[in-house]
Amino acid sequence: MRNNMAMRHAQVERFKAELQISIRNLRKERGLTQRQLATILGVDQATISNFESGKTVMSITQAYELVLVFGKDFSNPTLALASGY
Question: What CA–CA distance (Å, rounded) separates 79 from 59?
């Protein structure tokens, strides 16, 4: 797969889409609004909305902050969704 750029790109896009769903689901499970999560992360509500809709890609720092906030590892969002994260 190292040399197959199209396949890597497809997997990255799938990972991003699954991550967006995982973030939204975790936020809702914890009873947080987008505004509340934004306050916790030090961003504005529109940033959270853009993360969840895929309009904005979060930085590695922001992704790690989400791991710390939710206490969950997002390295495999598919597993996170299947295990009820």
Answer: 22
Whole-angstrom distance, CA of residue 69 vs CA of residue 80: 15
84 has a pLDDT exceeding 50 = no
pLDDT digits (tens, 9 = 90+) for 11-23: 888 888 888 898 9
pLDDT of the residue at 83: 44
Range of the domain at 74: 5-82
Residue 48 belongs to domain with CATH number: 1.10.260.40
